[in-house]
Hints:
The protein is mainly beta. It folds into three domains: 177 residues, Immunoglobulin-like (Sandwich), CATH 2.60.40; 122 residues, no CATH class; 196 residues, Jelly Rolls, CATH 2.60.120. Helices cover 6% and strands 41% of the residues. The chain is built from four helices and 41 strands. The strands form seven sheets. It has a nine-stranded antiparallel β-sheet, with no helix packed on it. A hairpin with a 2-residue loop joins strand 25 and strand 26. The radius of gyration is 32 Å and the shape is elongated.
Amino acid sequence: MFEMIGRLPETFWPPLDWRRLFFGLALLVTSGIFTPAEAAFGNGYSFRREVDFVDAKVIGGPHTNFPVLIDSTLLYLRTTANGGKVENANGYDIIFTSDQAGAIQLAHEIERYDATTGEIVFWVRIESFAATTSIYMFYGNSGIATFQGDVTSNGVTGVWDNDYVGVWHLNEDVVDEVSVATHFDATANNHDGIQQRNVEATGQIANGQDFDGTNDFIEDADGELYINGLTAFTLSLWIQSDIIGTSTGFIIGKLPDNDDDALTFRYDAAGLLGGGTNGIKASVTVNGVDQLFESSSNVQTTAWQYLSWSWSSGNQHTLYIDGLLDSLIFNDPAETGSLGGTDRLRIGQSTKSGETDWDGRIDETRLSSVVRGAAWIETEYNNQFSPATFYLLRAEDAQLVLVKRAFMTDGTPIANASTLPAGIPFDFMIYVNNKGDGVRTDTSIRDVLDPLFVYTVGTIFIDNSQSECALAACTAAEEASIRTAALATTVKTDIIDGDTVSFTGVTIDVGNQVIAGNAQQDADANKVLAIVFRVRMQ
């Protein structure tokens, strides 16, 4: 209930014929009803949107600690200096939560934020992800100055849980043909790689890295420390080749020596073991024994391609191409034990003599210490291949502040805590400034008059035509214009007769959530909903 209270004066004021007026209380709306308990988005953010995932794109599940890619360019996510609604130049006041109220924050990582265009490339960890999952994006908070994504939940801090050995986004800007830049591992493991003459290029997700086919690669010289000893893994990456009919490769765990062993992952022009052509070949060394596979034929392409290769002790290899399981034409018998034989990790190189170096682009390379299931991999592909069709950003909910003001009948504003002579008429105005891009349907407002105020029959006006104010509470000049516009509308009836407002006893009601006989009242997007009525002091 939203109440304006008239109070008796202190003893040194003239008794009975003067009253002091208290007003200006600001409240917020949730679910359409204005009450003191609904005073704000509790986390201090001004705007909210539901992120609704497309059911058909989320396969199986629920998936535990799934990193979802949010990749969009949105004008409202520009900074306020560039005409948007984000306050922090680094995008720090964009967060994600699992609940509508914004209390349960999800861990996220910022791969890219462009304050000028509103482009975001964020990774958000969802603890339990299924087709029915929805999350919420909050933005616009001038009080945020630091990164907010390092949230601890489900036993994990940040986005990447302990199953990830390394995650290399490969989005760094580097100088071509030099060997100085670092390609950072996004996990807490810090398995960073060093540039070796590669250069940034447009990737599948933000930037990737381009390799020109001549001794370009990225190297972690300590790769053997986390590869040797693995008893299971999934290695996934996005590749785009400049040529097909090639045996060049993308991953190797040793110096090139023309042997497919240790850890190698490459294109294969002519399958030696399975007889295929233009396929993919990979191998590991398990307790000194090489275990290889060759893919089906004619899978090489110059388009972006998502590869996900899994192995575990006692099992044969599996390969997924663009989210779907490939029918391998050769797959060595399973070996039991752990990986060995590596002495480094290189991205952008393989072992085939004369065709060692990758000619094309590589992006978003990940190594996990577990076998990812088919549903996880297909969901991952769906998300990263086309983020725009993987989720829907619903209409914007803005922080809605309910404000009550008072005016003399000639339009002069009455300041808070002013004193007025008994019997004088004046106008109350209640308004809500909907700065959101979505209509707030079925909005209801109730105002209970203190017995010291007497309503003037037949003086309720309502208007929703005025454009939003820049701030949550409008300026004095804006409020004057809003009042004028409301008084220019047709006066509403006091009785419950099917329009949107009514007066009963000491209560003014707008909308039908409390008074069923009233019509529904909506608060239009980017507009001010205002109610003006006249009272006098007793």
